[in-house]
Amino acid sequence: MHFRRMPIEVESPEQMGYDSIRNNLSESSYTDTLLRDTGIDTGLYDLLLAYGSHAGHEGLRELIVKDTPLKKDDVLITIGAAGALFIIATSLLEKGDELVVVRPNYATNLETPRAIGATLKYIDLRFEEGFALDLHQIEKAITPGTKYISVTYPHNPTGVCLTDNELRQLIVLAESKGIRLLVDETYRDMVFREPLPLAVEYSPHVISVSSLSKTYGLPGIRVGWIICRDKELMETFLAAKEQIYICGPVLEEEIAYRYLQQKDRYLPLIRTDIRQKFDIVKSWMRQQESFEWVEPGGGAVCFPRIRQPERVDIGKFYDILLNKYGTYTGPGHWFDMPRHYMRIGYGWPPRASLEEGLQSLTKSLLEASR
């Protein structure tokens, strides 16, 4: 495998230094959570710091599929969703295999298959088409060498959501071709309407991935998971996990378990806050004419673009935005897209900082105009 650092990580705010950014609009998650604010009993002195269950904390796995027809044995705990995606890609792909993947996309969904030497068949989502998924294009891209289809719901970075009918059609297509459908559902709990069932509930051909990082603002404990009903495939994923790191950290999995025990307390508050912050972005979009977007249907991010990029010095725009106004967004090249696109994370910053950051975008664009 040939690894290279991803721009989204090289230029991440934690690498640059959070103290260099006043209005951080680049984050893709909900606001980072202080442990003391979770209400979790931190009396963990009796926790045995031994190797944990290789599949992951049993109680945590049960909570992840609570109120579904799935079982804890359908769940494998991983080091974040990034760890889950790495396990899946390295288990299913070899050099020369093919992957049908939506673009733009979270970088790990693209870079790990590239590192393996797989061929990526891109399904490019177009702004002009509302970033809608073209199922006919996906079907045309599949060949005998295709191992799986990779999509996200809600989509990162656009926030566009699949419909129940689209998901069912994707599954029928995967089943008919004898391949897998990978659905990255990291933002599923943040859709603005009633969420679809877990994608894996529809079919054993589906692999679902999620984590506590995005919706719950807990990226620091690095807890994610794979859900799959194919027992043989799950055994392969477990073997991959064991060869990479044997088991997860028992302390972090215990914190995750205790947090999800109170999910019904946290999630409504998070959803309300996300929706109010989304309304701030929506109001800003209505009040200006320099940026345009496809309005997201969920998540904590959107992917607007500069309406007339030929009239703007894009490099100067980003320089003014950060160095004069202290505002940082995720430029399009993080997602293999032109730099006049940008991901705005509206779930992470405080509301006042979000409002200031959005106004800074307007000011910076005006000052960078040719």
Quick structural overview:
The chain is 37% helix and 15% strand. The chain is built from 12 helices and 14 strands.
Helix and strand arrangement:
Elements: H1 7-10, H2 13-16, E1 23-24, H3 58-64, E2 75-78, H4 80-92, E3 98-103, H5 108-116, E4 119-124, H6 135-141, E5 146-152, H7 164-177, E6 180-184, E7 206-211, E8 224-228, H8 231-245, H9 250-260, H10 263-287, E9 291-292, E10 301-302, E11 305-306, H11 314-323, E12 327-328, E13 330-331, E14 342-345, H12 351-367
Parallel strand pairs: 1-12, 3-4, 3-5, 5-6, 6-7
Antiparallel strand pairs: 2-8, 7-8, 9-11, 10-14, 13-14
Notes on the protein architecture:
This protein has 370 residues and is an alpha/beta fold. It folds into two domains: 7-33 and 264-367, Aspartate Aminotransferase, domain 1; 43-263, 3-Layer(aba) Sandwich (Aspartate Aminotransferase, domain 2), CATH 3.40.640. The protein is 37% helix and 15% strand. It has helices at 7-10, 13-16, 58-64, 80-92, 108-116, 135-141, 164-177, 231-245, 250-260, 263-287, 314-323, 351-367; strands spanning 23-24, 75-78, 98-103, 119-124, 146-152, 180-184, 206-211, 224-228, 291-292, 301-302, 305-306, 327-328, 330-331, 342-345. It has a seven-stranded mixed β-sheet with strand order 2-8-7-6-5-3-4, with helices on both faces. It has a three-stranded antiparallel β-sheet with strand order 10-14-13, with no helix packed on it. A two-stranded parallel sheet has the order 1-12. Helix 5 links the parallel strand 3 and strand 4 (119-124). The relative contact order is 0.18. The mean pLDDT is 95.
